[in-house]
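haha ok so turns out i had the wrong file open the whole time. this is the CORRECT one, sorry everyone. sequence first:
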Amino acid sequence: SKVISMETAALFTGLAAVFIYLISYQFPKRKAIIACNVVSRVLYVLQYLLLLAFEGAAMDLSAIPSSVFAARKHTPFVEKHKSLVITGVNGFIIGIGILVWQNWLSLVPVVGVLLETNALWLTQEKHIRFVSLLSLPFWLFYNLHCGAYGSALGNILAILSIILAMICYDIPIKRK
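then structure:
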C-alpha cells in the first residue's frame, strides 16, 4: 500500500479546514460562525504541523482560547471581565507570536489571527464578516509563502464567500 506524503495530507487537511471555514460565513447567527471557526482552526493547525509551518500552527492554536471566550461572551464571568478577557487573549496571541518569531514574515499570521479573532467579539454579524474579510489577505500571503496551497485557494474562496454573505445579509435591498 502507498503511504501519502505529508504535503498531500496537509493539502487534504487544509481543504477540509477551508470547506468548514467557508460555510461558516453562510450561517446567519454568530454562534454557528464561531463554532465552525474553532473546528476549522484545529484543522488548520494540523495542516501547518504537517507542513512544518510552526508559526501558522502556533497562531491558529493560540486563537482557539479567543474563539472559545468569544462564543461565551454572554456568560456572567466574560461579560463582567470582557475588557480583561479580550486584552488577555490578545496578549496571549501576541506573546505566542513573539515566541515563534523568525523574521518580519512572522508578523503576517499574527496580524491575520488578531483581526480574525477580534472579529468574533463583535456583536453584529455584518461586522464579524467585514473584519474577518480584512484578515484574509494576511493569511493568503502566509499560505502562499509556506506552501499551504489548498489554504491559499481557500483564502480566495473565503474572500468570495464573505463578499457573497455580505451581499445577501448586510446590504439592504431597496424594493419598489
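The helical segments are 6-24, 30-50, 54-71, 76-80, 82-99, 107-119, 125-146, 149-170.
again sry for the mixup
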